[in-house]
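ok trying again, last paste got cut off:
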Amino acid sequence: MSHAPTRAEHDMLGEISVPAHAYYGAHTARALINFPITRETLADRPHLVAALAVVKQAAATANAEAGALDRTRAEAIATACAEIRNGRLHDQFVVDLIQGGAGTSTNMNANEVIANRALELLGHDRGDHSALHPLDHVNLGQSTNDVYPTAVKLALDSHLAELLATLAGLREAFSAKAVEFADILKMGRTQLQDAVPMTLGQEFGAFAATLGEDEQRLAEVRLLLHELNLGGTAIGTGLNARPGYRELAVAHLRELTGIPTLVSAPDLIEATQDVGVFVQLSGVLKRVAVKLSKICNDLRLLSSGPQAGFGEITLPARQAGSSIMPGKVNPVIPEVVNQVAFEIVGNDVTITLAAEGGQLQLNAFEPIIARALTAGLDHLTAAIGVLTEHCVRGITARREHLAGLVATSAGLVTALSPALGYETASTIALEAHRTGRPPLELVRERQLLTNEQLGALTTPQALTGGPLS
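nice, full thing came through this time. structure:
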């Protein structure tokens, strides 16, 4: 039986075998044994891998300028980091997303991969750490406790940029439908009962407006991610970092990421233990998910039937809806968005508990926070894109059916109430409901209003918020 070639590496616990081809080293190898939890690895989060690399690149350059690291090693480290940011070696980021140690295994995985690639660039073999060491050089002036949260924040910023772009696309799709449906009268409903008339365009315009509000809230919380504790090292005191390193590292991060609002936290001890920004981001994501799920509930209701339900709109048919009922088509796209929303709400509970569980100068549970937030952002972005392309843009209105519902609804009487008086209007509404006769027909029959008065009170403009005269 043949065995894949290995090389021996060592750490504080002793020697361990590492695959000869691997760019990771001893600590990562131990993490693979210790944390076979989700089978989701750092490689499944390319934004986080790139963020780790950009933090290490900024740190190496800052250390060189602060006189802590020689230029040759710093340039090799920076080049390796740039390669990783461009997509190289992501498959070497193999540790599980959920891990003990507050993200130490993530940081060490990055240190080892970068160090071994930098060694190659310098003409040395992987594992020859006498020439360039993952801790003494790649991790110089750093700690997991400032590198990991900084990288997570940068990764989340990239995720948010994608979510905001996708959310804007959905908002624009709803706005386009609002224009398309602007002249279609329908009955609005409160508590699932007929209320007063509106236009289908107003209904879809409200969907667009509520998404616009969420875009603003996401943009606000995104700015909060830009306050960093990089340079605080272990607990925020900056132990083992050269004077000036912190300012240089953050400045280089601004330059490398193109994010001009990155700043150093005013109190690094507080910033190292605080995960409030993650709680706030989770809360905003929950808000987006809940509102989006409500919209999808509305779309499912409005399209229900199509004969025995509301049947006011038609969603694009995406697939057969049943293995037993021929011709059945289900609202599968809104349904999948609902399920992603449920996941986001569940993630918020996880993040809340993880944030509360922190003790003293560090929160050890940032890995589960990072996994929950990045997964939620990934899934929500994908779900919104699917909803936009495969559902909203193809929605059509059942105009004749909507017109018939308005004509026969007792809710139409509300528009006549100022002229008839509440008591008389109630009598007409109850009779219309009991007999199924159109309320305007009853008003004419009793000669309560002239045709001219009825016409003025029931124009689309008057019924949907325009002037009554």
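cool. The mean pLDDT is 94. The longest helix spans residues 144-180.
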